TrEMBL record:
It comes from Pelistega suis. Monomer. NCBIfam families: era, PRK00089.1, small_GTP. Residues 63-66 are annotated as: G3. It holds the Pfam family MMR_HSR1. This is GTPase Era. Residues 124-127 are annotated as: G4. Gene3D superfamilies: 3.30.300.20, P-loop containing nucleotide triphosphate hydrolases (3.40.50.300).
Amino acid sequence: MSTENAFKTGFIAVVGRPNVGKSTLINALIGSKISIVSRKAQTTRHRIHGVLTQDNHQYIFVDTPGFQTRHGGAMNRMMNRVVTQTLADVDVVVHVVEAGKWSEGDENVVPLLPTSKKCILVISKVDLLKSKNDIFEFTTKILSKFPYDAIVPLSAVKGVQLDILLKEIADRLPEGEPMFEEDAMTDRSVRFITSELIREKIFRLVGDELPYASTVQIEKWDETDEGVHINACVVVERESHKPILLGAKGMHMKRIATEARQDIREMLDKPVFLEIYIKVRKGWSEKESALRDLGYE
Ligand SMILES: Nc1nc2c(ncn2[C@@H]2O[C@H](COP(=O)(O)OP(=O)(O)OP(=O)(O)O)[C@@H](O)[C@H]2O)c(=O)[nH]1
Ligand SMILES: [Mg+2]
């Protein structure tokens, strides 16, 4: 029997085309950086849970890779599979679109939205809109495409209307006991987030092609009285990727390591000694077996 104060727990999938701001939104909602963000499309490759427990509710957000059909390949098939599987498993769906920017990429997400579940439309990045009037026409157009249960325009970067989104989600969560500790923020290990933070720097600092041809593995993790000693390995596709990643006089690599170390230090709240190596593994992103070896789903 339903009671007014019963605890509610549920999974909320955050889906949308690449680059609309899904990971930024989840980080803002849970108040911690658990999912990496960059200006480049397809930054997120894995399903990542972000957990928020407040006021008798446990929200388990599931960040997903941007859904896209333009490029083929094993990596993209894997990423799209994560999206469709996540949609099958959750209680509430949040479809994120970018204010004023509807494209074919968004159009391709609509047929994936389950009509049997609660779907909330989030219009992101409203801080970039020149005029608030533009949003009305834009929203009306999208509403003709799918029977969304609610619409929330918001800005994750400015923290605008995030409370409204939480309320809309809370109204639609099923009753249930919490699945994570009250102070948990993610299901992912600090080792995984460490590898992601290094990958984020590669996405942010190096070229256009290389980020998509690289992945990061943690090879050593030693905690001592001094701090944490971490060896990480960046796996690239080709020998020719090495000099690009290193940059002139190793400048790129130095910056990647310095910026990653700062973030990791902040997360662990301890001194961090980070060494990064480069390894060539031909065609790793094209082989499903190699992807599984590297920890992809
Ligand atoms: N101005 C503004 N920029 C935003 C906002 N939310 C996200 N961004 C920017 O949009 C870009 C993409 O953000 P992500 O969070 O990586 O987007 P995503 O949807 O997770 O992207 P993929 O993982 O690649 O699918 C980054 O440069 C963010 O800083 C916002 O509310 N306002
Ligand atoms: Mg993302």
